[in-house]
Amino acid sequence: MLWSDPEDEPPKDLRDAQDMLRRLGFVMALAMILAMLVLGLR
Fold first, then answer.
1. CA Rg, the chain, in Å?
2. How is residue 5 annotated by DSSP?
3. Which residues lie below 8 Å from residue 13, measured CB to CB, with a gap of 6+?
4. Where are the strands (E) in 1-42, listed by range?
5. Which InterPro entries has this protein been placed in (predicted)?
6. d(CA 23, CA 34)
7. How far from the centroid of its chain's Cα atoms is residue 2's Cα?
8. Cα gap 29→21, rounded to integer Å
9. b vs e for 5-28, b when ≥16 Cβ sit within 10 Å of the residue's Cβ?
10. What are the backbone angles phi and psi of residue 7, rounded to the nearest 5°?
């Protein structure tokens, strides 16, 4: 790695988008589990 190489760090916008997608995936997984429980109880 040379001192003139660009940083491996992604830009802040990309990191924010990745965090949002991770949170969205987590919420979707919880929603699916909840839906299965509700449908299973009926």
1. 19
2. S
3. none
4. none
5. MmpB-like (IPR058070)
6. 16
7. 32
8. 12
9. eeeeeeeeeeeeeeeeeeeeeeee
10. -65, 145
Residues 1-42: tens digit of each pLDDT: 566 777 777 789 999 999 999 999 999 999 999 999 999 987
Q: CA quadruple 12, 16, 17, 19: dihedral positive or negative?
A: positive
- Structure tokens that stand for 40 in this block: 């299973």
Query: Rounded to a whole number, what is the distance in angstroms from the first to the last CA of the chain?
Result: 60
φ, ψ of residue 41 to 5 degrees: the values are: -80, -20
- Whether this prediction's pTM lies above 0.70 is answered by no
Residue 18 makes CB contacts below 8 A (sequence gap 6+) with 10
DSSP classification of residue 3: T
